[in-house]
Amino acid sequence: MDEKASVTIHDIARELKISASTVSRALNDNPRISQATKDKIKSLALKMGYQPNIIASNLRNQKTNTIGIVVPLINRHFFSSFISGVEDVAFASGYNVIISQSNDLLEKEKKIVQSLFSNRVDGLIASLSMQTNEFDHFQLFTNKNIPLVFFDRVVPELEAHKIVVDDFAVGFKATQHLIDQGYRRIAHLAGPTVLNTYHDRMEGYKEALRKNNLTVEDELIIFNRLTRMDGQEAIKQLLALPHPPDAVFCGNDTSALSMMVYMKKIGIRIPEDFGLIGFSNEPFSEVVTPSISTLQQPAFEMGLKAAELLIREIETKNKTQNYQTITMPTELVIRESSLRNAPRSA
Amino acid sequence: MDEKASVTIHDIARELKISASTVSRALNDNPRISQATKDKIKSLALKMGYQPNIIASNLRNQKTNTIGIVVPLINRHFFSSFISGVEDVAFASGYNVIISQSNDLLEKEKKIVQSLFSNRVDGLIASLSMQTNEFDHFQLFTNKNIPLVFFDRVVPELEAHKIVVDDFAVGFKATQHLIDQGYRRIAHLAGPTVLNTYHDRMEGYKEALRKNNLTVEDELIIFNRLTRMDGQEAIKQLLALPHPPDAVFCGNDTSALSMMVYMKKIGIRIPEDFGLIGFSNEPFSEVVTPSISTLQQPAFEMGLKAAELLIREIETKNKTQNYQTITMPTELVIRESSLRNAPRSA
DNA sequence: CTGAAAGCGCTAACAT
DNA sequence: ATGTTAGCGCTTTCAG
């Protein structure tokens, strides 16, 4: 039942009474090897069940053909779609992908980045954890000029490529929509504003209020981590206000959902009494009742772009030094939870 | 702006005028090195920004401290929870995890397994794609006695460890529940029955009917891939029958949801006119209206178990040769979509 | 077109 | 307690 060590190019070489370098070249389709010997070698390799040892190859080549991804949670539709986009491009270009999740924990993010570096990934694609407020761990990559692309949750001070959406415009658009629907006292549930995404969405929200001569009130802006629990706490807090809001723009769909569940329970009608809009178009937002209006980001396409950009960087190392920021379009998905009037002209 | 090659143990050794092996030993806390030199070496390593080259270490040690996971889709709550379970155990035991998704495609699954093998993972945890009807690609692992654990979607003919739930019992339980609720003509939407999960669920369904003196009718059992689209097609087909069913037990929540959406649209009331039960407790099933009854599998715990089993195998290589099958408990989650009567005594 | 030899960075006998 | 040496499996000059 036991087995001997793996078959290596040396085993093949010995069998064929040729040198290991010839075997290596043949298997890599080096043009300097005659078709005849290539055929001979390849068929023997097959017969002997040869499997290249990528580790050895990687060590020798100083290249792993692997790209690392760090996301907060693979469990979110936005992130898993993004990952699928990355994988498509990566596999088509001959790269493997190592996926890791930080669980929104800074310490875990650090360990992961460390580990991906030690494993010598050729490039890294990352979206920051909610806790991330320092960035030294990424210097491992920047110091050694290993390509690095951030997406979604990025910070301005990072000198790297970035794939984002225009969160300011999105925040504005969402808020304007609520205003158009006749809501007048609009609250906002924001995530940690160290992260540009949450910061910009909030600023867009404020700007929309101002443009419409509505006042921005601190008590209507709540900051937390946007979990289900956080959403419920936030809506309780808002409704307990002397002068409660009549709508909320939530930083994600999860918190919007939990607000909705709570309000249904206590008899607040959506959208008649209260307007609600989420963010990121999680699959559930379409199927709950009432369905939740939200903002759709092109997650898959962002993944494609991120991978393309990263791989181009990897393969033209040290050519460019100017960091690109690619802003992708978003779409306002209007559903029942915010639709009190007939839809306005687009 | 440019940088030189990485600092290696040789650089440290040269600086300190000692040998590379001493450096290596010190960094690995080998007891044969004096504390004084250890301190000296470690602090210099830190100062020089030394980062171990795991690739070289892996090559030398013939061990990567990495375990591979293949799942159909990381995007499903069941799988992502499972993965989190694996990660918890793996990280605690000093292993990295490489996650890959087959997208339910046999060809992609083969490539992934191949690639994980070439990357010399120390062990593999896998759940089969819906298309998987041959298993030769896993022989790479079995032939070389590399530990292998299957979970959820497994097949009997594979000689390997398995983490499963008792799908037969679960199918029975779900069907019995519908019968208890007074439904009498119960259909079943099944996935590919090459996979034990779907096969066993279906057999459990049949057995429950028989035990209750209900006849098993072929026209009430539909096979497909359980996508949203598949669910809709299936319910149309069932409702078009001369003698349509009054309830369905669906192989997953996704198809149950799409059935529900369709039936709501055409005015069939759930659960009054029609009973529905899904499988796997996706988060949305709780929040849709009516909420969907379903079966809950202990995904996270299954991940823990799988990782524990795999790592034990890795670390006691060739000790055991008898394959374990661990069956985990499931829970019937009764919600609105199947609850026509008052709940029976548990 | 093919071979010999060196080396990627690390570890582990086997020295001393 | 530390050094010497060899080698993990592969690729790639350099030679012919």
Automatic annotation (TrEMBL), chains A, B:
Q: Which SUPFAM superfamilies match?
A: lambda repressor-like DNA-binding domains, Periplasmic binding protein-like I
What CDD domains does UniProt report for this protein, alphabetically? HTH_LacI (cd01392), PBP1_LacI_sugar_binding-like (cd06267)
Could you tell me the keywords of this UniProt record?
Answer: DNA-binding, Transcription, Transcription regulation
Q: Which domain of life is it from?
A: Bacteria
Chain segments annotated as transmembrane: none
Which InterPro entries did the record assign? HTH_LacI, LacI/GalR-like_sensor, Lambda_DNA-bd_dom_sf, Peripla_BP_I
Q: Name one GO molecular function term.
A: transcription cis-regulatory region binding
Please state every residue range assigned to the domain named HTH lacI-type: 7-61
Which is one Pfam family of this protein? Answer: LacI
Question: By what name is this protein known?
Answer: LacI family transcriptional regulator
* Source organism: Gaoshiqia sediminis
